[in-house]
Each structure stands twice: as C-alpha cells, then as structure tokens.
Amino acid sequence: MAVLKQDIIEAHKRIIPYIHRTPVFTSKSINEMFGCSFYFKCENFQKIGAFKIRGGMNASLLLPASKLQKGLATHSSGNHAQAIALAAKLLNTRAYIVMPNNSPNVKVNAVKGYGAEITFCNPTLRAREDTMDEVIKRTGAEFIHPFNDERIIAGQATCAKELIEEINGLDVIIAPVGGGGLLSGTALSAKYFGNDINVFAGEPVGAADAILSFKTGKIESAPYINTIADGLLTTLADITLKIIRENVTDIFTVSEEEIIDAMRLIYERMKIVVEPSSAVPFAAILKHINQFKGKHIGVIISGGNVDLNSFKNWFV
Amino acid sequence: MAVLKQDIIEAHKRIIPYIHRTPVFTSKSINEMFGCSFYFKCENFQKIGAFKIRGGMNASLLLPASKLQKGLATHSSGNHAQAIALAAKLLNTRAYIVMPNNSPNVKVNAVKGYGAEITFCNPTLRAREDTMDEVIKRTGAEFIHPFNDERIIAGQATCAKELIEEINGLDVIIAPVGGGGLLSGTALSAKYFGNDINVFAGEPVGAADAILSFKTGKIESAPYINTIADGLLTTLADITLKIIRENVTDIFTVSEEEIIDAMRLIYERMKIVVEPSSAVPFAAILKHINQFKGKHIGVIISGGNVDLNSFKNWFV
Q: Which residues in A lie closer than 8 A to residue B46 (C-beta atoms)?
C-alpha cells in the first residue's frame, strides 16, 4: 500500500479547512552569510505549533463516521498527542491519549486543553503499548500511529507540497528525521510535485538511528540517546524506512552544539521561536555548506513548542 | 510644522521600496483566553528587526542630494543607529554613529555590519551631544534625531497606516512609548486613516516619564529608571509631547513582571521573538483587560532585537 501522488493531493484538499497555510520565511542576512537561498517553511506557526496536525487530521478525516464516533487514540508525550487531541475536538469526537507519568506538565496541559482524556502509564514502551491496548479495548477508539501509517505520511507530505508550489526552482529540501513520517512525506512530495529536487534529512548525533537504518536497510537503534531535539528520539519503522531508502539522497548528523548554533541564528535573524528538532535540518546544511553553495534550499521548520525555561540551558 | 495626512501618505510611498510590508499575526488561543481580538503588527520582522527603519528611511530620502552625499549622523546605541546605518547603505552614502563606549558588542557589530563609521564616547548625554557636534562639524553630515522630527514621525506612522488598511474595524491601537516617535505616528495614522480608533500607549513603571508628561504637559523625567524594556528609556520631546497630548487616549504603566508575563505569552503562543519593549503594550492591555473585552485591538510589536543570553534572566 504505497502513498500515491493522488493520495497527497486528496489529503491536502481534505485538511485545508482545518490547517493553516503556513508562511515561507526568508532572511537576506542568512542568505548573504552562507551564499545560498534558504526558504524556511514555518510549521511552528501551524495549529498546535507543529506540522503533526496535518497527518493527524488526514488520518482522522479518512475514518468512516461509525469508527470516528468511537474516538481517536494514541500514545505520545509530544506534538502528535496534541494533533490527535485537536483533530478529535474539531471533529466532535473523543481523544484518548496515553502519556508517560513523567511527561512535563506543559505537555499534559496542552493535551488536556483540547479536551482529551489522558491515561498515564509508566515511562516504558511496553507500559505504553499495554495501556494503549487496554484503552482501545475499553473504548473502541481508532489507534493512530504517529508516523508508520500511510494516512499520516500523506498528511505530512502536504507541508512540502505547499513549499514546492510556492517557491519555484528549489534544488534541495531538508527535513528533520525522527520516526520518518515528515521525511517520508517530504520525499514523496518532492518526487511527485518537484522538478529534480534532492531531499536530505538532519538527525542528531545523539539519536542517530535513521542514518544507520538508511545504510543497512534494517530498523536500527541509535548507539546512544542524548539530545535536546526531543522530537527526534523515535526510530524509523517499516513503511517510513522503505520510502526514505528509495527517495532520500542523504542523512546528515549534527552535534548538540551545531543544533544550538543553528537555533541561535534562527532566533536572532528570523525572530521566530523554533523547537530544537526544527533547527536540526538547518544545522545539517550549515555543516555541509560547501555542498550547497548557490543552491535554493527549502528547510522544513517542523515546530515551535518549547519550554521557555529551557532557554537558559541553550543560550549562554 | 505639523505632520499632515498627506505627509504620511507620501512617506509611505517613498519608503515602500526599502521596507518590508510586515505581517499581522493573530492567535486564536490568545483571543479565546482574553475575550477580545488581537492583531499584532509584527515589526520584529521589519528590516533591522524593528520599525525604526521606517522613520530613518523617510528622513534620509527627504534630504536633497547635495546634503545626502555628506552622510547621515545620529547618536544612539539602539535600533535607530541601525536604521540610520542601513538607510545610508541603501542610499550609497556614509553613516556616522556616535555610541557610548559601554554599548553591547552585539549592537556595535550590527551597526558596523552596515558599514557605518562609529565614534565612541563616554556614556553621558553631554558626551554624546558634544561628540555628535564634533562629528557633524568634521563631516557636514545631517543629524537625524531618533524621534523629535516630523520626518521621523511621518515614517513611523506608516506602520499603523498599514495595520489600519489591512484590518477593518479596529477599535483600539496600542504602541509602546519611549521618545514618542512611534506613538505620535500611530496616533496620527489612527486619526487620519482610521474610523474612531482610540490610541493607547504602554510604558514601563521603571521608565514612567511619558505618563507624567502626558498629564502635566511638560517634559518630565521618570521617577526612577529600572526596566528590561531598554528601547523605552528616553523622555518625550516638544513635538512628540504635543501630538501625544492631542491624540492619545491614555498611557498605562506596567511592571517588569507584567512585561515578562506578556513576553512569555507572545513567545509561547505566537512563536515569535520580540524584545521586551514590544511586550509592553500587550502587557498594558492585559492589565486593563476588562476595559477591552470584545474589542478589536491592534498591537504594535515594535521590534525583535534581543540578546538571547538575556533569556535566562526572563524565563525562569
């Protein structure tokens, strides 16, 4: 079951009434600094503050009414939880979110704010899945995976589709990679709607599983986990790995220092708030800037949900 | 010599090729939180990161060529210095900026980055003025005051003009007040281009001179100076005081805590970087929210030039 061009076109039509058409920002000073033309697709301004609403909305809208009325369910402590919670609210159904009991209050409150029912579990993958199974058994709600799902991928693909339609002549698009939903969608939209666009990904050294999986063709774990890019901790899965292997040119890893430097440039020059995961692709381009001189580069700014109290750890 | 409607219309035509048309941002969550409709005019996305380029550009473009070729001069450690430096660069002339020798490196470098010649002086008003006089004597450059100048006021007025033309039915516009150039221009544009818009201003308690001058009709000093809103430290002068007394409904003062709370909301909900001075008007509305329930409120976000290392002092 592949994600076809028509799937993405239809996903876009389906979700347009529910999402923001986010702006594409440019910065003359950044372009002059590095000798290329950057186009930042600002999903930090998207509803829920991240691109995840695109996939969440598409998957939800594809459910038959009889299924939808039983509700939506997922386990996540991040932006996907908010996406499913908001999708349920917009479609007048229930959201059942399983969250680890050590989730930050700010994230719990955001999900609660959309009226979702939260079930807390121990902070292990096993506990998450077991609790999720119980919730689904009890409610009959539809489980919506955060990335390994063609409906989600088609939804996330609409972000790059908008960018490609707005900016002519892109040579490159780069996205962050966690589970690979956004990257898969980006690569497919580049193939279907672009004209010879090379797609790259940025990944933290401290969560470097995708680069390994990309090379070996198997789902690999990261050698170690230690990064402020908390949206990129998950590994790829079968559907995203296949799409990425077939359609992505390369994956670059970046250090924590490189992430912070890129984030600082974005804050200082573009005056926008982005989460660390969003600075990873830009950091990756800057690290390999000689390869990209003179190019027209689309950069997916995936989200802007940060705890401002973390600033003191980053900007010193 | 008043600032007429036609002066603002012509200023706008004059500067349009050199400035950004900045976007007006809205936030559903902020509107729901407070029960009114906010329209944030985002001059943090303006060239040099602040509205000051509007006035600086207008004043510079009004100079005869013979005068312009001798250069532009001002004393400032803030956004006005960058505005004059960029205006000079864009018009192929020299900028001579007098800066206190304790100015932060980031500001000195920004001005240098536009190719301006910097003359350092001791950090007193007297030393600034004396040094400025010497520079002007030596160069013949035109001194451009940061706010007490009709050309500057007409330029700053174009910001509210754009907001009024874009958003129908505004009841209120609020701007920050330092020297009063932006506030004067805002009030005049509301009168000339708006339909019964009340103009307010926000001022820090720790630099509360304008509210006193507004009441007494004389240029007053602040009882004390202690605020993170470093763009609002100057007092009004004769031209701005007169315009503000005649055209502004009220000035509200806000505490440092209220400024930080407002800034936090802007960062968290709107995902934009603003300088503390820019959060002052929003803080003022929130402090008097009962007076503004149900209203359509334009808020001038004056700029986004912050030292990220200050975040650790604000967001804790």
A: none
